[in-house]
Amino acid sequence: MPRSALNAEEEAYQHIQRQIVQGAARPGSRLVPEIIAGEIGISRTPVRVALRRLASEGLVTIRTNRSAVVRRLNRREMLEVFQIRSVLEGLALRNAMENMGPVQLHRLDAMLDQLDGTAPAAVDQTSTHREFHEYLCGFCRQPRLQQQIADLHAVVEPYMRLWASEPGRVAVRMREAHQELIDAIRGGDPAHCEATMRKHVMATVSALAPFLPDDDGRAE
């Protein structure tokens, strides 16, 4: 059955976003509509529409000559993204607490094994980390808030993958940081949970700095 224009645009959007988020298309690399269209078997028009949509979400930059590249954030921009994330995820966790109980906490405990820096190399820790946060924030039951958080995760995930794949990088013990979140939930104080989440999110910013140009676009 032939694709509708809407379905083709969504397919192109999902394909390009996946390439960016999973690191196949790295920050600064060109996105050529003809190549992308050939990869998924559609025309260039829905690809161009998808690229404009991704540009509105901060993942792609459309240049004056109409070429497109994967957007490269600088340190100031990344700090802004994490500041917004910290506020939104803090709010989500605060609102999620009333919908969480022993069953959900048990699931979070089980997820910690995959977040440990000693997990098998086959484990995609970047995806697992995102899944942990999505599961946790999902209990706020606020779709608009959850979508905004998901969009921000998509912006930072390529840089998280660069950091995680750095040769010789000492594995970070992520268990302890996420255990702190679970302990806060068990404590039952919504304000403390919100503050703990905000602190947790902001703690990652300094680790990503070496992979970003400074505010003037110059790498150290």
UniProtKB/TrEMBL annotation:
Claim: Transcription is one of the keywords in the record: yes
Endpoints of the signal sequence: none
Domain called HTH gntR-type: residue spans: 6-73
Keywords on record: DNA-binding, Transcription, Transcription regulation
Highest taxon listed in the record's lineage: Bacteria
GO MF term (any one): DNA-binding transcription factor activity
Protein's name according to its UniProt entry: GntR family transcriptional regulator
